[in-house]
Amino acid sequence: MAIVINMPRLSDTMEEGTVAKWLKNVGDKVEEGDILAEIETDKATMEFESFNEGTLLHIGIQEGDGAPVDTLLAIIGEEGEDISALLNGASAPEAKAEEKQEESAAEPETVASEASESVEIPEGVEIIKMPRLSDTMEEGTIASWLKKVGDKVEEGDILAEIETDKATMEFESFYSGTLLYIGTQEGESSPVDVILAIIGPEGTDVDALLASKPSSAAPKAAAAAPKETAKTESKAAPSAPAETKEVVANDGQRIFVSPLAKKIASEKGVNLRDVTGSGDNGRIVKKDVENFVPAPKAAAPAAKASGAGAPLALPVGEESVEDVKNNQMRKVIAKRLGESKFTAPHYYLNIEVDMDNAKASRVQINSLPDTKVSFNDMVVKACAMALRKHPQVNTSWNGDTTRYNHHISVGVAVAVEDGLVVPVLKFTDQMGLSQIGASVRDLAGKARTKKLTPAEMEGSTFTVSNLGMFGVESFTSIINQPNSAILSVGAIVEKPVVKDGQIVVGNTMKLTLACDHRTVDGATGAQFLQTLRAFIENPVTMLA
Predict the structure, then answer these.
(1) Region Disordered: start and end of each range (predicted)?
(2) Domain architecture of the chain: domains with CATH
(3) Active-site hit among 42, 151, 207, 521
(4) pLDDT digit string, tens, across residues 379-403
(5) Active site includes 521?
(6) Which residue in 193, 354, 418, 517 is the catalytic one?
């Protein structure tokens, strides 16, 4: 069955996008994860990948043309499938309206029954859906709401902070009015396009909107559930507040608990049966769970001595585990690295580099005013220069083609609290050592405070991962696709080495290059490492 793909919202402020380039043509086979097109947003040009498999049957927006978000972008389906109905539906909404009017005149009873199940969205009421804030975002988690139900909202106000797979971003309102409804609570996740909030005139009844299938904006399935849930809860516990959740314990006893308290109890492994609620009608609230102290368990009785021997004292304790919900960043790291490891045939090459000259050169460079260069900065610069000499390593595998990147942009892996991000130094080969150092420090700082933008994490052609600062001497990394290679950098180690036939104290560093064998052959990877070693061991060549 054919799938209609609409222009996505790739940034929080994007209202329309321009197709910079199509990477697939009509008739091409498309696999899940293939890049369909490069789309220019208000912030950056981003790759848009397919979440479906099939044949590209139709392109709705040509290269260089722009269109609003949710406009028909493409259709994917089975080869030879008839898509005329989809195209007519997308290009002739007026004809559809006329057709509906004719149907309504011919079948008044049917329309009347449908009208009873549907409701028009009142004027001034806006239904806000979970936005797609990054090119890979499939769902978002509400980190915090900055507005609550009943608050006045002005256009441009920040409604909430939404955690995506890449960063926590502020989501602003494009509308003015009163916040009438919140569909996803703090700490909860929702897929893209699910109802997030409703804004409109104060006093507007949103129950009818949530219980019905609005005729023009809200999806049918997105709003029927809240009303049904409310009905069920009101029957089971008429005296409980609207924001109380009902939990049924193993013994059949009903427990009333707020959504946030239930979430915290789940995270802490607290059995709600053991918690005394302080809210209305014994409802368990957040503070009840946070202040809950389990009753101490009675110690096991000491074993009686048997015979002449004394009893063996065994440790007494309680087994304990905790399931922590994976955040969006961790989910995407798992997905992307899993895809890379199991689709790209990795192989690894190792070399050991003499760092004596590099250490001496770094001391001289850092003696200059307002200059601070790390060994990692020197490695990044050396990689950029080596990639210029070995373009086969600066490639991407695209199935039927291999893409040669004529620009060089090195990604630098940065560990953050929730996982790993890779900010990108654009056109790294054109940067000096001090520029690289300043840029890496700036981007790493943004990464740790979750201030990186999607544009600052897109477009790498090669990646460097350094664990030397943790004392790790050597390791292997998983390729950061669509790159063809990633360099793992170990610690600088002082040890005995042989120079000119004599054993002396030297400083060495181990490098491991992981390559995608589909694009980089073993000899090519080895030659790249030879060039890389020459630059690092002779830093003066990188200053020319």
Answers:
(1) 92-120, 217-243
(2) 3-114 (2.40.50.100), 121-234 (2.40.50.100), 245-290 (4.10.320.10), 328-542 (3.30.559.10)
(3) 521
(4) 999 999 999 999 999 999 999 999 9
(5) yes
(6) 517
